[in-house]
């Protein structure tokens, strides 16, 4: 076959050279050869397959120290799905109707898939892939199919889509890149690929007629192209680029622990976004200076029971200790929107991103909220802790939270339990209301942290999971830049510090603007920290003309201006 060039949408940048391995599970052949028995026999086959599939998930989670936080969350979600009563009842119901076990599983999966497709929210619609994943796992056991495995090394895995649990089991030592025909940046499959650091592209149109297992391939996820069977000259050129990429990574890791001090002497704190205490090992290794965002909701999402004060305290204490004197900003419970918590049994809402979520839930369930606050205050006696309130839109939400914090302090004091009275209290600025009210809010808190993911979504009225309007979702939109300018300026005028914990914080292109603004802290995924810190060390804070960039009228003008600076 002659050389072939394809294009795709870049999710994780980089250069990867390897050989293609196609992932195509042949369920149809297995279904055609399946010999169905009676109702009771099919029930028994299903139950056996269910146990084997569940054991597979347990085995993966038994090695959770090798998994990222995203992988653990997704596999735990699959554990809950595989034992979901309504899902199992649907399968058993179809078995009673004398369907074969594989057909019953597929029918139940189709029912649940149809239910998910009725949901307006794009992110939640993506969750239908989890039920498909669980169903396929059971199906493979029923059809005696081998679980997928990677063959060899330097593999570029190519598929229309990849089940999240398969992605979670892939080895970074073997797999170099992922090419998907479908998938969005919010799908669980892509989230895991990003966490593992695989060079990743989606929207890649590769058919089995065009490629086969073992074909040489170059993935250029900088230009957004894929070269199948590249010629010798191209291959040599890309090998040089790949080697440079590896050397750059080694260089950055050698300098990861150095402070992020600009050429003109301004030091920026570079912290980590984490979801559990286990993430701290990676955060420390990558040179993160504390935690800018601890997403505590995942502690609440991992069980059907709410975590008590002691359990929360142990988790927060562990993070504080590992931070070794650096500040740990703990975000209070941010359930709602795209995050479901079984233990809270919240009603399904038509528009969850604009509904009952985050601080709105906490202030209506003061007992729940006070339990978390007390655990955070107690952890403060083991390190430097900050409390961050999410989704604030009104001053009363700040004042009511601070009142509850004082009540919690008095109760801990009466119980003679050690706690810190010096815990900082700040808010996550992620709504247009909080951006507009920033000058007033700043007088009542110790810090601001800008959550650009939701701030962009709410400011521009763009669903960040909807691919049809994804071209509008951009934090370089002048409306967003003006909001960020107002937030940081308001913080500094009030004498408090301003940080950022959204995706923009880890974007190299945004750095000149953020340094010119005087942002004090940037919090991001740990793996981004070495590169961001190194870029800060090679910049002057005034390289970006703040007055000029704020006069630009559209997103492309902003991007062009910033690219020219780099």
DSSP helix fraction? 40-55%
What portion of the residues fall into strands of 2 or more residues? Answer: 5-15%
Overall morphology = globular
Low-confidence stretches: none
Radius of gyration: 25 Å
Enumerate the strands of the largest sheet in spatial order, edge to edge or round the barrel: 1-8-7-3-4-5-6-2
Mean pLDDT: 87
Quaternary assembly: single chain
Total strands: 17
The largest sheet is:
8 strands, mixed
Q: What's the N-to-C terminus distance?
A: 40 Å
Structural class: alpha/beta
Number of DSSP helical runs: 24
Question: Overview of this structure, please?
Answer:
The chain has 566 residues and is α/β, with parallel strands linked by helices. 46% of the residues lie in helices and 14% in strands. The strands form 2 sheets. The chain has an 8-stranded mixed sheet with strand order 1-8-7-3-4-5-6-2. It has an 8-stranded parallel β-barrel with strand order 10-11-12-13-14-15-16-17, surrounded by 6 helices. Helix 9 (188-196) links the parallel strand 5 (175-180) and strand 6. Helix 2 (39-61) crosses helix 7, helix 4 packs across helix 5 and helix 5 (101-117) packs antiparallel against helix 7 (128-142). The longest helix has 23 residues, at 39-61. The protein is globular, with a radius of gyration of 25 Å. It starts with a strand and ends with a helix. 44% of the residues are buried. The model has no long low-confidence stretch (mean pLDDT 87).
